[in-house]
Design the sequence.
């Protein structure tokens, strides 16, 4: 009998001990950061997770110095797990370093607390003109009014708070400071200029952290330039004005896709510093021809015989984008992706002196590891003339899509090939570039 009482007493002690431990067990509390760098008027996410086996009654996020006291009342549901995510707006007059207290309370009143230190993040980012600012600004001169109107209608931005923008045109004795506020401002400023000429201008944007964004430009006041009419062409082509069209059997006109109304793009390789480019809507140099104004290098326009070529400053690969309606173009340099094929390349097809559909010798690197080049002879008596490229195993075949784009066919042996008409037997240099996916065939004799 005594043994039974001893056993019951022992079990009771264990249950009481476990019950006391459960009563004293603090709820779990996890925060995703113990230190947060921020600044006045910033928006900060405070997030984490709380948990308790017996259920929770509340989660509080508080910072007395910033007058923040967010309470999640969980007394009705008493969840065992709760994920919190609170967007905190930093006061404009916030002080640093301050403590943010995150407190979780379970249904029995047990608390757990963590402190997040709120520190100041220095302002190092300069304000900017959204989309950049042109190096040349074209202003049309009105002879009847004896003036040209320069309109500044750009958006200036900063990651925190703008202070001012200053427009300096020394030769016109103009130096104007325009106060700003907020993170984004659309400026609408006009300046009247009474004489033709080129006027250097400096645009300086300053934020409240003392950072500056400085832009240099030329305001060119000139008589109105007449442009030929334009259409929303189905495509455009790039041509290298340093080369001669009659030397090419295939590939002189580099196809550009139509991306949107009046907008076109493609990738190119500029073979040398100072490469000269024109743009045409057809494979002809005698019709519409787009280049830049002789006076404003950033102004794209259609006037065959008047426009000058776009100049590519450095040799290399570029993404070319045109907006012919708004007289704009961009050249963006890029490095070929590391996955771009740079292995062995072999020419094959019909109309070559080495027999139809046999393999040429390996093509050699022509400037870069992606550009392959070979010199071969053509047979003018051939009934068909076409070519494509392969890695030599037929596992990879590069074909041409209706004279527009080259594409990699590594799934089948069907599809288009590039056709050409040499006119007579001749020797040619064939070049293929896997980084821009374009092939050319050029006479060399």
Sequence:
């Amino acid at each position: 009998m005594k043994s039974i009482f001893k056993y019951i007493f022992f079990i009771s002690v264990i249950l009481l001990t476990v019950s006391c431990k459960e009563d004293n067990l603090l709820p779990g509390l996890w925060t995703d950061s113990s230190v947060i760098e921020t600044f006045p008027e910033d928006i900060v996410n405070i997030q984490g997770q709380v948990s308790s086996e017996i259920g929770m009654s509340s989660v509080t996020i508080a910072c007395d110095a910033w007058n923040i006291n967010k309470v999640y009342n969980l007394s009705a549901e008493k969840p065992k797990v709760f994920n919190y995510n609170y967007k905190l707006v930093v006061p404009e007059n916030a002080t640093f370093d301050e403590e943010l207290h995150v407190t979780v309370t379970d249904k029995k009143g047990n608390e757990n607390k963590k402190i997040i230190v709120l520190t100041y993040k220095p302002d190092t980012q300069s304000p900017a003109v959204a989309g950049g600012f042109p190096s040349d600004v074209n202003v049309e001169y009105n002879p009847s009014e004896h003036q040209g109107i320069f309109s500044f209608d750009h958006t200036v931005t900063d990651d925190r708070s703008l202070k001012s923008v200053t427009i300096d045109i020394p030769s016109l004795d103009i130096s104007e400071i325009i106060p700003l506020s907020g993170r984004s401002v659309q400026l609408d400023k006009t300046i009247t200029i009474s004489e033709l000429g080129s006027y250097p201008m400096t645009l300086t944007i300053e934020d409240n952290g003392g950072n500056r964004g400085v832009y240099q430009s030329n305001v060119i006041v000139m008589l109105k330039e007449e442009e030929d009419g334009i259409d929303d062409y189905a495509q455009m082509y790039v041509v290298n004005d340093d080369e001669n069209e009659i030397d090419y059997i295939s590939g002189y006109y580099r196809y550009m896709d139509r991306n949107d109304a009046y907008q076109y793009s493609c990738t190119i390789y500029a073979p040398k510093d100072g490469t000269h480019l024109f743009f045409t809507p057809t494979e002809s140099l005698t019709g519409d021809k787009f280049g830049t104004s002789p006076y404003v290098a950033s102004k794209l326009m259609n006037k065959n015989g008047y426009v000058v070529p776009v100049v590519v400053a450095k040799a290399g690969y570029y993404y070319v984008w045109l907006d012919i309606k708004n007289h704009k173009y961009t050249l963006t340099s890029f490095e070929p992706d590391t996955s771009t094929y740079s292995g062995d390349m072999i020419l094959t097809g019909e109309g070559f002196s080495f027999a139809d559909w046999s393999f040429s010798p390996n093509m050699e690197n022509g400037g870069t590891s992606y550009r392959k080049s070979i010199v071969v002879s053509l047979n003018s008596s051939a009934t068909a003339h076409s070519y494509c490229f392969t890695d030599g195993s037929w596992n990879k075949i590069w074909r041409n899509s209706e004279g527009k784009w080259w594409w990699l066919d590594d799934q089948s042996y069907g599809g288009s090939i590039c056709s050409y008409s040499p006119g007579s037997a001749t020797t040619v240099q064939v070049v293929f570039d896997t980084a821009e996916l374009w092939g050319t065939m050029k006479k060399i004799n």
